[in-house]
# Entry
Amino acid sequence: MPDPTRTVAILCGASHWPRLDTFDPAPAFTNTATELRRYLTNPNGMALPAGNVLWLFDADTTAAEHIDRIDHFLAHHIQRTGSAHGRGLLILFAYVGHGAFFGADRAYCLLVRDTHKPGLAQTSLRVADLAYTLRTAAPESSRIVPDEPAPRLRTHPATPRPRTRRSTPARGPLPRPTHRRPRRHTPVPQPRHHATSTKPQPDDTPSRTSPESSAA
# Structure
């Protein structure tokens, strides 16, 4: 837990905007900001002294006056703690409300109660100006602040990315193999041997007669 005596918090935002007809009042923003301040000063929370919290939520001041009050608040606590350039000081910044991209440069802005037309960007709290103020007032401090989101506005259609083909396993029946299957060896039928008779067969070969038989 950070040292409460060397931690300061800045709470900004708004729950209604009397000079704008774009947004309806939002009581939920008031509840959120109030509970956040209670947590910062509660002994069971961060236990910050009340003087270490700058409450600018729903303040009837312009965006430029917001910047001036933040700068004076930080200078006072840097002198109180004796931390040159904010060394050893922890700065917490919180905003509860609406943010939008305003102006020709599409700068990200935080709406305050005084935000109005036609100068929406000039009457809002620009995140770039806020970051510059914190950085110059206490350059060696530790700061926890919201990041500036990148605008989503596209002036030209995006160039489609080429699709990369991904090798996927083939579906369906597997392809037939290209090699031929070995033929089955079919045994050649052998001739059957029938039993033969033991009776002598007549001999077609002419027999030779001996001289004795011819003389008789």
